[in-house]
Outer membrane receptor protein, mostly Fe transport
Amino acid sequence: MSRLRLLSAAALLTLASAANASSFIATTDAVVGALKATSDATSDATASLRDNKIVRAAQDDAASFVASNGQIRSVKLESAFDTIRRQAPQLQASDAELAQAILAI
């Protein structure tokens, strides 16, 4: 009788691990798909911003903004923020995040 219980437990563990593995794969596929969609949207937005003269002209001001923790703001930087928010409203980024993105361009 103990042999039957042992075999049943082994079969149950095998089935449980197979179900767990397939659940993990499905979850991973969903997460990777969502990240890829976000990355594609961000890539498209930043590619057009990289060529924007207003955004590129604000790079020095963005550096001052970041270095001063947002205390130093300029007309060029505000104009760049407005341009970015108009061209890529899906980003929903703070001024600090936008300034750092301008520096990365």
Residues 2-104 form one domain. The mean pLDDT is 75.
